[in-house]
Amino acid sequence: MSKKRIAIGALGGTISMTASPSGGVTATLGARELAQTVPGIANMAELSLQTLEKLPSGSIRFEHLFNCLAWAEKEVEKGAAGVIITQGTDTLEESAFFLDLFWRHTQPLVLMGAMRSPEAPGADGAANLLASVAVACSQASANRGVLVVMNDDIHEARHVRKVHSTRVNAFESPVFGVVGVVLENRVQYFRPTVRKPQLPIPASFNKKVLLFEHAISDDPDIILLALEHAAYQGVVIAGFGSGHVSEPMRNVLVAAAGRIPVLVCSRTAAGSTTNAVYGYKGAEIDLQQNGVLMGQWLCPRKARLLLAAALWNDCNREQIKELLGQWGASQ
């Protein structure tokens, strides 16, 4: 049988980093050099290799991700059975969710990286890339949208989170668990993936969403200042517990919700916002009665990306609420 064609695009990150004369590691390796470090990878698929950027993941911006999206779509149009993007792990979960909002193809789009640079003892990049090729080649990966492959685990973009700063098992899907694994180069899935409706790729992406983590005894004036200068067209609050804020913060958010979309998520590492449990001022019943939307199962970082994508597509409040019901649902 002929091998499937898999496209690999390199963005940079730890997986591409080698020692710098000035100390530490920096991104130097491109897609071709990465593939050359993986024994047996050429036997698995016909590879199309492209170096897109050489960036630390904290420097990735929306324009880079839209460029990745355009490149990946062209590769699919040219016959790629799957596409892999290598990048740094610090923002990997955000990139994956962002791309999942727009990825309309049945072919899998796989994101991966490494927790250890290629020159470090126990470097994990080669194994992660080999596993990613296996996932991209698998027919069982079709119509699952964007997946993250790290440490032989397969995660859905909507649920994956980086939960440790340095360990090789830094990625988990804490609420719903991994969707599958790679074992002996074989891909095994545990459940179907429920795909959500993709958004159109916007003509521009200038509208901004403020993400603010609420903390005890903090000052809501920062929200007021941001909104007074019209610097942001939406707000996401990482709130207490199941989606709560202090009364002073509540007053600011309620006033803002009359003009722009305001979302409250949970700042905890797992769990959904509630809808009808707490009734005090600043709790979810009061907030929803005053026009504030709840992020449900979405973490604040991903809710920010969803809200931004909705604003770029000129969605109104009801359309944003519908998107939250779809992307923030438990399934």
UniProtKB/TrEMBL annotation:
The source's domain of life comes to: Bacteria
In this protein, which residues make up the domain named L-asparaginase N-terminal?
Answer: 5-193
Recorded hits in Gene3D superfamilies, A to Z, give: 3.40.50.40, L-asparaginase, N-terminal domain
Q: Which InterPro entries match?
A: AsnASE_II (IPR004550), Asp/glu_Ase-like_sf (IPR036152), Asparaginase/glutaminase-like (IPR006034), Asparaginase_C (IPR040919), L-asparaginase_C (IPR027473), L-asparaginase_N (IPR027474), L-asparaginase_N_sf (IPR037152)
Q: Which residues form the Asparaginase/glutaminase C-terminal domain?
A: 209-323
Q: Which Pfam families match?
A: Asparaginase, Asparaginase_C
Keywords on record: Hydrolase
In terms of SMART domains, this protein maps to: Asparaginase (SM00870)
Can you tell me which family this protein belongs to?
Belongs to the asparaginase 1 family.
Q: What is this protein called?
A: Asparaginase
